[in-house]
Design brief:
six-stranded mixed sheet; Rossmann fold; about 500 residues; five-stranded parallel sheet; alpha/beta; 14 helices; 17 strands
């Protein structure tokens, strides 16, 4: 690869948040102009850290990051910061520039058309008034308005409906500039990715692969198989030489010299044994225990409101969920799915009634049910206490460990965890609170793809009433659904 083609080059870059939390260890890779690469790795491996290093938010402890002079970089982040939720759309887009941009409204309209977001009187609307899917489109547009040479996308499909993902996919296929994307959505990545940077959480180094996600999985599997076979053959040869060396050593004389040489040969072979690549850890299989003292109807829905063509419309329904009944809530971005779930969870939904003393477990897509100033340990103990259950130290730590909330992060502030780790904390709280009604709003967002089959199996076997919103068909297909309510029909 010639230097003229390279837009970014990492050379032996190391970074750590603290002496106890190293993230990158002498990482080297390069990105050529116009390439479309994926950055993959386990939750908490440090993918977003690499984005922050590229944008200059962080600086490396060691090594150098070379970006071609004049190259502009912009990031479409995973989530809009909480403090920006009270901003207007205009203020949000103005914040993307270091200097004042005059007559910005036409520029906003142009990028909103690209991301397929059309809302009446949008410039003065508050960010918090948009659905999760609409906010995802705003995040993408906030990067595009800067017209960057290097576009960084952090989980861009989160909260997007099927139409939104299709629109984004076509945009990226046609996009002429350089793109680096973090995503756990395999189908999305396979549509446009030409190469993958895999950040190994164990070695803290980048592995580079040619091809899409499927190619990477296949290449890694082949590599692991070869390494295991080589190690097995070496181990067999080493054992044979050690056994012969022991036999010769007992015979004395010249045989002792032969035994010594055979032991030395065995030691040389041991040095040839390779470290087999460790796979990302997967959360352990789990169940969400159901509240025991509930009988009869857990939730009934007789009516609900939707936002259609900028108008609020009330619709009738006949939904009655008892134990072991699961409802899938469908509809496009912006129709009001998250608003309905939130109002049901806090008991303010007109036309919905939750049974007496039913404990509600609510998984929000923005994790705002968690206190970001608390540690996971405090959140998990609090979940048990809020459910009227006596916090049990052994139970809390056991559940935490099963969700990869290990000793190095269990006392860290939740706000400092990656989005994927926050999601795992949220699932752990549901396990400990033992709800009677489970409400889940986009539970696959930010979660490592390896965990999703485990989560799907746990939700499918949940024995309480459940309401689910998800735009990921392959995830939904793994879950037992008893009833579907399409808000668009």
């Amino acid at each position: 690869m010639s230097k003229a083609e390279t837009i970014v080059r990492f050379e032996n870059v190391s970074f750590e948040y603290s002496a106890t939390k190293p993230i990158l260890d002498e990482v080297s890779f390069s990105i050529r102009k116009g390439a479309k690469f994926t950055l993959m790795g386990q939750n908490g491996a440090g993918k977003s850290t690499i984005f922050n290093l590229l944008t200059g938010v962080f600086t490396p402890e060691h090594g150098t990051i070379n970006i071609v002079k004049g190259t502009t970089v912009a990031t479409a982040r995973q989530v809009i910061p909480r403090e920006q939720m009270e901003w207007t759309v205009r203020e949000f887009f103005e914040s993307q520039f270091s200097q004042k941009v005059y007559d910005i409204d036409p520029k906003i309209d142009a990028v909103l058309e690209v991301v397929n977001l059309s809302v009446k009187d949008i410039h003065e609307r508050l960010i918090k008034s948009f659905s999760g899917g609409q906010q995802a489109r705003l995040l993408l547009a906030s990067a595009l308005i800067q017209d960057p040479d290097l576009l960084l996308l952090d989980e861009p499909t989160n909260n997007l409906d099927t139409a939104g993902i299709a629109h984004l996919t076509k945009f990226l296929i046609d996009y002429k500039k350089t793109v680096l994307v973090i995503s756990h959505d395999a189908a999305f990545l396979n549509a446009f990715t030409e190469g993958v940077f895999y950040l190994d959480i164990f070695t803290r180094k980048i592995e580079q692969y040619v091809g899409n996600y499927n190619d990477v999985v296949r290449d890694i599997a082949v590599r692991i198989e070869k390494e295991n076979m080589k190690n097995a053959m070496l181990a067999k040869e080493i054992q044979a030489k050690k056994e012969k060396a022991n036999q010769f050593a007992y015979k004395g004389g010249q045989m002792r010299l032969v035994a010594k040489r055979m032991r030395e040969k065995a030691e040389e072979l041991e040095e040839d044994i390779v470290d087999v690549r460790k796979e990302d850890k997967t959360i352990r299989p789990f169940t969400i225990p159901v509240q025991e003292d509930i009988v009869g109807e857990i939730i009934g829905i007789s009516s609900f409101t939707v936002l259609k063509n900028h108008k609020v419309t009330e619709r009738k329904a006949t939904i009655s969920l008892k134990r072991n009944q699961h409802l899938l809530l469908k509809g496009p971005n912006g129709i009001g799915k998250s608003t309905l779930l939130e109002s049901i969870a806090n008991g303010t939904a007109k036309g919905s009634s939750i049974g007496r003393n039913v404990r509600v477990g609510y998984y929000r897509q923005d994790f705002s049910t968690l206190n970001f100033n608390e540690s996971p340990y405090q959140a998990l103990r609090g979940a048990m206490a809020s459910a009227g259950l006596r916090p049990n130290e052994e139970r809390v730590r056991s559940v935490a460990a099963s969700f990869l909330i290990t000793s190095d992060i269990i006392n860290t502030q939740i706000g400092n965890l990656s989005e994927g780790q926050k999601g795992l904390v949220a699932f752990a709280t549901l396990v400990l609170m033992e709800p009677g009604l489970l409400i889940l709003d986009e539970p696959t967002n930010h979660i490592n793809f390896r965990h999703l089959p485990v989560i799907a199996k746990a939700l499918s076997s949940y024995a309480g009433a459940m309401i689910l919103v998800s735009h990921v068909p392959e995830f939904v297909h793994q879950i037992r659904i008893d009833e579907v309510l399409d808000l668009d029909k």
